[in-house]
Every structure is written in C-alpha cells, then in structure tokens.
Q: What sequence folds into this?
C-alpha cells in the first residue's frame, strides 16, 4: 500500500501580481471534523468506508506488500481532464512510484495551456495541454482529394533490364549418379531397364534472377499531402475551469488500505511546493522506518 499519498493541485495565476490564494486545503488534523467537510457517495451500496487512521501501512504485513497498482505492466499516473463533458487521459506515459513509501503528487496547470506533473516535488512530465491530450481534433489531416498518381514510380530498385541470363546457367537440379554402376546380377529381362539413381547436381545454380539496380524513374516515396482540418478550432482556454475548489476521491482498490492526506488547491505553485515540503517532506522520513517510529 502507498502509505501516505498527497495530492496537490496548483493552478498558477496569470501574472506575478496576483496574490497567492489557497482554494482548498485538508490535512485531517482536527479529529473527526473532516466528516463535516467530506461527503461519502451513496450512488452505490457496496462502497468501502473512509476512516481516519495514522496508518499501519499494511493491513497484513506479508499479504499486502507493495502499492496498489492497476496492472503490473501499466504503473501509470493517470492525468485526466474533463473537457467539454468528456474525459481525456494524457497520452504520455507518466510512471508512478511503485515502492512502499509516501509520495507527493502535484499537477500544475498554467493559463498559457502548459502543464507540469511533479512527483515528490520533482518534475516528471511537462508540456502543452493541446499536444499531450486529445482535447481537440488534429490540426492537419490527410487531404482526402489527394491520390497517389497512377504513374508514380515508388520502386527504389528494379531488376537490371540489361542483365542477361548466362547461356550455361540452366542445369538440371538432379542428375543420374555418374558413379552408379549397373549391378552385375542385374537381369534386364526380369528387372527391366536399369537406371542409375538420381543425385543432386553440383552444377545446379538455382533460379536465375537479374541483379538489382537503382530505378532511374524512382520518384521517392509518395507523401500524402495534408490540409488544415476543417473540424479543428483552436481553443486558447483549454486550461480554464469555472470551478475547481472541490476534490473528489473516486477509488477502485485491489488491496484496501491506501491512505491519502494533505490535499491542497492553490494558484501558487510555490505555495504548493512549500506545503509539500512542510507535510510530505517531514513525514516521508518516518515511512522508511515503518512501524518503529511514530512521527
Ligand atoms: C522544498 O524543499 C526542497 C528540498 O529541500 C528545496 O530545494 C526547495 O527549495 C523547497 N521549496 C520551497 C518552496 O520551500
């Protein structure tokens, strides 16, 4: 189980003038009061319970080893945005940590439509929202009107038309064994006409093929021309959400016992890093000693 996970979301402000604002912060440090701030879904009846716990790190020290990771081959951090009512998963591979220690996850979204994913306060991925998610259809598409011309020669090599099969090329594949001798006791009348057994002909050269030369008519590989996609409309506000002051946890666990702590939504990536340092940064040391130390 991941012992203690932290989720931080920093939505950076448009200018340096904007003040740091914390929209949401939860550290579960006031006893049972968190219950008044968190709502458990009643959508289905078989949900597991959320409980407040300092964390034993394992339900069963032997059985529950390792983090709860969906599919050993995947180990992916799923960064998903809802864009115009549809969920879009990042199309880059962000590897998650698969040890048993506490980790800090941060997502930074900037008003210039760039983003950054940090794990343990270190950048693991960054780029452009439009490039790394399929929010918008592609800018360019293959021109449906364009077709490879019939006479387009895309053969790089051709058989040399001047190469001729040597006169003495054709030899039978099998020949009567020149060393075979008609047995002395062969009786033509009784046994029929004697024929030597066939053997592979050492002079047989196989099927003749002309050598290959560069095709003088070669035009190169045909590249399908692209046109602007009529379906594409640029959106300079992919990053923008009208309301982001709420965090919901939608968990499907293979092994129970994952612990989450210290949620933060702010417009200041620096504040996010600082809070990360103050929370995860301080307690991560304790997870190394697991049960022995209480921090
Ligand atoms: C967080 O901690 C790291 C490592 O000690 C340090 O380099 C960094 O400056 C800290 N960040 C902030 C915002 O205090």
A:
């Amino acid at each position: 189980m991941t012992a203690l996970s932290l989720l931080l979301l920093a939505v950076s402000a448009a200018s340096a003038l904007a003040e740091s604002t914390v929209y949401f912060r939860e550290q579960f440090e006031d006893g049972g009061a968190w219950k008044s701030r968190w709502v458990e879904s009643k959508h289905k009846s078989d949900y597991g319970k959320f409980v407040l716990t300092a964390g034993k790190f394992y339900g069963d020290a032997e059985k529950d080893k390792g983090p709860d990771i969906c599919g050993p081959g995947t180990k992916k951090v799923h960064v998903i945005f809802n864009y115009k009512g549809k969920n879009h998963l990042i199309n880059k591979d962000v590897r998650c940590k698969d040890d048993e220690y506490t980790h800090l996850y941060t997502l930074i979204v900037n008003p210039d439509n760039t983003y950054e994913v940090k794990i343990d306060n270190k950048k693991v991925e960054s780029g452009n929202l439009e490039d790394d998610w399929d929010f918008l259809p592609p800018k360019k598409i293959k021109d449906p009107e364009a077709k490879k011309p019939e006479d387009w020669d895309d053969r790089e090599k051709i058989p040399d038309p001047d190469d001729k099969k040597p006169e003495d090329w054709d030899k039978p594949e099998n020949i009567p064994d020149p060393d075979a001798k008609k047995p002395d006791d062969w009786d033509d009348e009784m046994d029929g006409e004697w024929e030597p057994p066939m053997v592979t002909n050492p002079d047989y050269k196989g099927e003749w093929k002309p050598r290959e030369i560069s095709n003088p008519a070669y035009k190169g590989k045909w590249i399908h021309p692209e046109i602007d996609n009529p379906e594409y409309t640029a959106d300079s506000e992919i990053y923008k959400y009208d309301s982001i002051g709420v965090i919901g946890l939608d968990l499907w666990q293979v092994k129970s016992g994952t612990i989450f702590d210290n949620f933060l939504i702010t417009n200041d990536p620096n504040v996010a890093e600082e809070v990360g340092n103050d929370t995860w940064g301080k307690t991560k040391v304790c997870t190394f000693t697991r049960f022995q130390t209480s921090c």
